[in-house]
């Protein structure tokens, strides 16, 4: 019974990491990328997202609750996993370790980002171009955001590889090798989008 429960939790953790959390990450980066077109373009995109129907329902049940489960169970996986890169330096072992490390970094980053944006908005602050520009005006915060974005994107992209394996989509060594190239391509592409977006606020 315990094994079945853990199997279910791991499958749910994997699924939520892609749908909806991974999709939300991608959408969030794309919206932020409007900053590269100027303050007015970003503010229009942000205002559109703010005015979505059922926004609070979507934020709670499609974003925050799935993210909370993924984060909490992810911490359990991270701190119970047996990393063996010191003995076996294979590529996938390094990816396994980096997946856990970037998960922790991403969690810290997301909590801080939510505090600086959504929580402050609840207290009356306006989430707009100026808010983000003020945040990243501090060089330390700019570096923190870049590290957080790259960590989040890597965690999602590499998590996709694991998702494809665990859900039986890529079962052969050849398909897993192709999946590695595809997911690393996603990592590079989304990292460029995210970094360009955050630098646009500087």
Automatic annotation (TrEMBL):
Entry GO terms, CC: membrane
Residues that hold heme according to the record: 28, 70, 113, 155
MF annotations from Gene Ontology: metal ion binding
InterPro entries according to UniProt: Cytochrome_b-558, SQR/QFR_C/D, Succ_DH_cyt_b558_Firmicute, SuccDH_FuR_B_TM-su
Residue ranges of the TM segments: 12-34, 54-76, 97-115, 135-157, 178-199
Localisation: Membrane
Alphabetical keyword list: Heme, Iron, Membrane, Metal-binding, Transmembrane, Transmembrane helix
Pfam family, one: Sdh_cyt
Protein name, as recorded: Succinate dehydrogenase subunit C
